[in-house]
Amino acid sequence: MIDIVDCTLRDGGYYTNWDFNENLTLNYFQAMEKLPVSYIEIGYRSLVQDGYKGEYNYCPDYILKYARQHMPSKKIGIMLNEKEVKIDDLEKLLSSCKGTIDIVRMAVDPANIKRAGETAARIKEMGFEMGFNVMYVSKWMTEYPDFMTDVASLNGKVDSFSMVDSYGSIFPEEVETITRHLRSVLQCKIGFHGHNNTELAFANTLAAIKAGCELIDTTITGMGRGAGNMKTELLLSYFSSKEGVSLDFNSLSTTVADFERLKEEYGWGTNLPYMVSGFNSLPQKDVMDWVTRRFYSINSILQALHNMKDKKGDNLKLPIFNSDKSHFDTVLIIGGGPSGANCATAIKQFIKKQEDKSICIIHASSKNAGYYNDIDIPQFFCLVGNEGHRLEKVFADFDLNKISCVLPSYPRKMGTYIPQQLIDKSFELKEVTFSPLYQDSHTALALQTAIELSATTVYIAGYDGYDGLINENERLLTSENEYLLSQIVDKRPDIEVATITATKYQGVKNLSVYRLLID
Amino acid sequence: MIDIVDCTLRDGGYYTNWDFNENLTLNYFQAMEKLPVSYIEIGYRSLVQDGYKGEYNYCPDYILKYARQHMPSKKIGIMLNEKEVKIDDLEKLLSSCKGTIDIVRMAVDPANIKRAGETAARIKEMGFEMGFNVMYVSKWMTEYPDFMTDVASLNGKVDSFSMVDSYGSIFPEEVETITRHLRSVLQCKIGFHGHNNTELAFANTLAAIKAGCELIDTTITGMGRGAGNMKTELLLSYFSSKEGVSLDFNSLSTTVADFERLKEEYGWGTNLPYMVSGFNSLPQKDVMDWVTRRFYSINSILQALHNMKDKKGDNLKLPIFNSDKSHFDTVLIIGGGPSGANCATAIKQFIKKQEDKSICIIHASSKNAGYYNDIDIPQFFCLVGNEGHRLEKVFADFDLNKISCVLPSYPRKMGTYIPQQLIDKSFELKEVTFSPLYQDSHTALALQTAIELSATTVYIAGYDGYDGLINENERLLTSENEYLLSQIVDKRPDIEVATITATKYQGVKNLSVYRLLID
């Protein structure tokens, strides 16, 4: 049987920022101790200090001892990022691990294979088993022409060499070809670390084993960066059924159940954006960020991926918004909250009362726009990400003469989508002047549009905020909106900014549209 | 390029009972019309009347027309279950479909292949394109020895013949071998319908295509019975990236997003029980029932699967409960609701007051048992499914002399798990006498235990029921408990049954433990 390297905490940490609760880690370690897994890679060790990362990104000594205590019979490992490691730091990084951990692996960019070999040799001298996880296997043949011969220089310096399918884009036949090649030039163990973007992690793993790999990386429930990994429970139940390997299903199911609960929260696993990024060998980091924040539609992520694939940040440079310096005394920003619909009648009454003043509407979101198609003043639509698609149905009922679209400044990371009939009515902002953060958000776009229109009064409706228990995305959106509202209040004291429908947002004046109707 | 048969509604209906909301079906049909999918199989047609099944299990004519209206350029199909279809019924089943649908497929058991051929010939005569989906491909070689030659009799009777990996258990090499064989004996198109239990649906599909399959079944997000199917979006993005097939990602992502939302509710996709059933070629129906109701732990499902694999309903016959006819005047049943913990002090006070009477506790659930380990009367534990595992921690603090375990009668479908130290304290019920339904539930077990102990008074605590919005499982549990309580009240008027803590359950007398303390 081949050796399984379970790296659930190390690779799964990308979702939890390497914090895991102790009940879960205890169940996990106890399960690993009882299962036919050879190596347990519990986390990273690192000297990098930027930003918060949790316990299993640093694996302080007490964590190593805790793991050792519960897995006395297993080989325990940690991983280093080769590009972060200076040879002079090794003593500081690793000396206290001696006697507690068995194996050190390094994540290695194929471009740095020679430098990595020197570091590896030193780590081996310190008495650790030494393994390489070398990234981007699907690009070795095409983009790293020397790499496949350079690897021979690693002989004697590493105990194992694992291919990492970083993009989740490799196919079984390629795995076989590369494994056979490595087998012919390397004397160490060969391994495979599969990602599941295209649901080929298991087929690729079987191909790797067939071609002579002896080390397979897996994680419980596939928890791991992006679309996730080869699943430990899948490989183990395969070995149990097909090779008669004895399995403690009680231990396995206990830890699987823990991670399934975590998966409901964090939602790893593949989906259409990961599939597309996989088939096109695109980096996982951005996709993971877009997918997990759940702000973006699948379609806008796909758009961004196609831009990435075509190596362009954007596909459309637009005219700058309001270069003819139109002016409105009052702008009314309509957000996507329920009050934008519920109070539409009153808001439209208010607009009609302003006959002598110049007034316009800015739709921060398209959600409530349909309630305002019968009001005959200029209306501006903020197009962020996929908003253009959502708007297509809205525009069907609109007199196109009274609308314009405003987009973030060029280049737009998520790409540009504008419904065909609106392309000549679309403009981009030169810059967002009042806030350093969240410049691509709906709210920043709407407020900056008001600034560009030289408004002296900005009334805001449909910014209700959230009631009761809120989820992570609602919390983020609340912070974002409150921050932007406070920024415009601070930076532009010359503009009167007020919400005119019920709101939970703090830090901005709150009036009532019904009171305004009486004035 | 091969022909894709998208059968999302037909196969996905196993999760929704073939009801889908109209907004979802409209988006789906509009997407299909724009995507490079050749056939859209929208549902079953059936004359079977038992039990409720929704629109897409019967596909009445208006549904066929609705599909046709939105997919004018596509081949539209429905499926029949061969075992339900009599040749004389074909006219009734299919005549009104003429001109609206293009293809009729039949789900066929390989044992009935000859009979199915006759039905197929008749359907072809009616003017429909005729396809077979033949089940259990992973068992054809071993369990249907004549089948691989019998299929030749289908030549001229069917236009396509698809292998169905019913158990989700086949491997790519097997798919290739069988495809090549079919290719050599059949003149029609060969197809493949993959299930994703072992995450090999895509690898198997690629193998099928490589070996000459021309028809591939897929569903959006893999929605389909059990672990689900080959995903339409995965195969399409593969063809888009690797074969340059043009894709309308906007349409695709719109319908994918709809089904992703449905998936969050119904939770199809593979998991450890589906993997194990896949590797062991076990039927999906029970596993799906166990997994989707979410009453059972992963481990108890695995236990049941292993029993199924070993062709035994159970692995342990226990002594019959209370064969020495112990008797208690009063039994106190403690359920898992919060009041079982919150009112523990009062309940224990009440027990102490009963000094002269014989009284015992029956723990319907182990959840609150820990609150009663300091009370020195006999205590009975109901072990259903995985309860034994959950109890292991509870028992650590218990004086084992005062406890016994009661299990459902033999054989137990979910198998038997009893903690080692309790095996000689465990008994099974002979039968549940007071209710025809839910005999294996915690509540039935607890009430029958009370009957076996000849109790004249049954007090129930920790049966709180649910407040506010409840989910499907909570609704089922509510119905189950209310039914069982009403059954014992009806069938055993000689026993006084009453809840003594706050409860939402109807139909049983409700007292207060605090009032009982004053008596």
TrEMBL record, chains A, B:
Keyword Manganese assigned: yes
Domain of life: Bacteria
Keyword Lyase on entry: no
Domain Pyruvate carboxyltransferase: from-to ranges: 2-263
InterPro entries reported in the protein's UniProt record: 2-IPM_HCS-like (IPR050073), Aldolase_TIM (IPR013785), PYR_CT (IPR000891)
A GO molecular-function annotation: 2-isopropylmalate synthase activity
Keywords for this protein: Manganese
Biological processes annotated in GO: L-leucine biosynthetic process
Pfam families per record: HMGL-like (PF00682)
Protein name as annotated: 4-hydroxy 2-oxovalerate aldolase
Originating species: Dysgonomonas alginatilytica
